[in-house]
Amino acid sequence: MDKWLKAPWFIRIVSLLLAVALYISVSLNDNEASGLEDTLFPSGSNDTVTMSNIPLQVRIDEEKYVVRGVPQTVSVAIEGSKSIVTTTERVRSFDVYLDLENLEPGKHDVRVQHEGFNNNLSVNIEPQTIEVVIEERATKEYTAEVDVINQNQLDDGMILGEPVIEPEKIKVTGGKSEIDQIAMVKAIVDLNEIDGDEINVDDAPVKVYDQQGNELNVYADPSALHVEIPVEVGQKEVPLSIQTEGELPDGLSLQSLSAEPEAVTVFGQESLLNSLEEISNLSVDLSSVKKDGKVEIPVPTPPGLTKVEPSTVQANIDVEETVEKTLEDIPIEVNGLEDGRDISFIEPENETIDITVFGTEKQLQEITAENFTASIDVQGFYEGEFDAEIQISNPEDYEFTSNFNHARVRIE
C-alpha cells in the first residue's frame, strides 16, 4: 500500500477521480444531472415534445394602448436531447411573448418571440406570426342597466319591480373604435341561479354591447355589480266580453253569446290591474255556426300583465231561426232646415217609413217603432227639389231593412 501511495500514477488516478466526483456534485446542485450525463456519456438520440396552451404574453404600454387579435395561448414544439426536453417540459421556466413596445397604433404582423429555453434546444412556435391591431386606449363612464334572463322561473303572478344597482356608474376601457360603438352596458341577472324569493345578487356580471346587441371585447370596472330587484304580486278578477266576426248562415239569428266562466283572474303589477275593467278582445267567428253549441277560445293576457287564469274559456252560442217584424209609419224628422223656409215631402208622401227587423222570436217580442228613429239632414239645401239620405238610428244594433233609403223633398 505504501508503494502505491508513493507512486505518481496512483496519485494522478485518485486526483482525477476526485475531480470527476466534485464536478458531478456541482452539476447535481444546479439541477443539471441529466444534462451532465448526456455531456459525459452522449446517447446520440434526440426527443421532440409539443406543449399546447402555452400562455402568450404581450409586452406593451398598457396605460396608453390596447391590443386586439392576440390569442391567449400558442403551441410550442421543442427538440433536443431527451433529458433536456423532459426537464424543460416539466419545469417550463420560459416565456413566449409578443414585443409591441416600439410599434405605433395600427395593424401589424408580429413574430412570436421566446426566452428562457436551453441553448441546445430547437424551438418552434405555432403560430409563428400573429396579426394584431394596436389602438389608443380610451375610457368612458356609463350608467348600467339590468337585464333579467329566464324570467319564466318566476312563480305565477310574480312580477319584477324597479332594480336597485350598486354602483350605478361603470367605467369601460378599450380601443377608441370599440368605445365609440358602445350602446348598452348591462348587469346580467339569471333567475336560474336565484335560490329563494328574494332577488339579491352580489356579483351580477357586466356585459357591454353595440347597437346590434353584439358583445364588445372591452374592460368594465367594476366587472360585476350588486343588484337587488323587488318582487311584486297582484291579482284581480276581470269580466269578459265576447265580440263576433263574420255572419251567421241565412235563416239563423244570434239569440245570445256568453262566456263560461264570465270572468278570469289576471295577475300582474298593481298599478296596471287598477286600470283594467274588462277583457273584451275575445271573438267568435259566426260564419261556421249552424246550431247551438260551445266554442273554446283563448283569453289574451292584457299588455304589461303576467298571465290570466283560466287561459281559455267556453263561448256559449245560442242561435234560433230568423223571424221578421215590420214596424210601420215611423216618422222622418227634418234637421238643418233654415229659418223661414218650408219643406214638403214628395216621396214618401206621408213623411214616414216602414222598417222590417230580423231576429229571433224572443228578440222581436218587445221591439216597437220607438226603438228606431229616422231623419234627414237638409243643411245647405236652398229652394228646389232634393234627394236626402234617410238616416236610421238603431241603438240595439238590430238587423233591418226599410222601404225607403232616400226622401225626395221640396224646399220653398
Secondary-structure map with pairings?
Layout: H1 2-6, H2 8-29, H3 33-40, E1 46-55, E2 57-59, E3 65-68, E4 73-81, H4 82-91, E5 95-99, E6 106-111, E7 113-115, E8 122-126, E9 129-143, E10 145-149, E11 158-160, E12 164-166, E13 169-175, H5 176-181, E14 184-190, E15 199-209, E16 219-221, E17 224-229, E18 231-233, E19 235-245, E20 252-260, E21 263-267, H6 270-274, E22 279-285, E23 293-298, E24 307-309, E25 312-321, E26 323-335, E27 343-347, E28 352-359, H7 361-364, E29 373-377, E30 384-389, E31 391-393, E32 399-402, E33 406-411
Parallel strand pairs: 2-5, 10-14, 19-22, 26-29
Antiparallel strand pairs: 1-4, 3-9, 4-8, 5-7, 6-9, 9-13, 11-18, 12-17, 13-16, 14-15, 15-17, 19-21, 20-25, 21-24, 23-25, 26-28, 27-33, 28-32, 29-31, 30-33
CATH class type of the largest domain: Mainly Beta
Q: Do you know the CATH architecture of the largest domain?
A: Beta Complex
Roughly what fraction of the amino acids lie in strands? over 45%
**Low-pLDDT stretches:** 28-43
- Briefly note the CATH topology name of the largest domain: RNA Polymerase Alpha Subunit, Chain A, domain 2
Tally of strands: 33
What spatial form do the alpha-carbon principal axes imply? elongated
| Helix-strand category | mainly beta
Mean pLDDT: 85
Largest sheet: 5 strands, antiparallel
Number of helices: 7
Number of domains: 5
Give the fraction of residues assigned to helices. Answer: 10-25%
Oligomer: single chain
Evaluate the radius of gyration: 47 Å
Distance between the termini: 167 Å
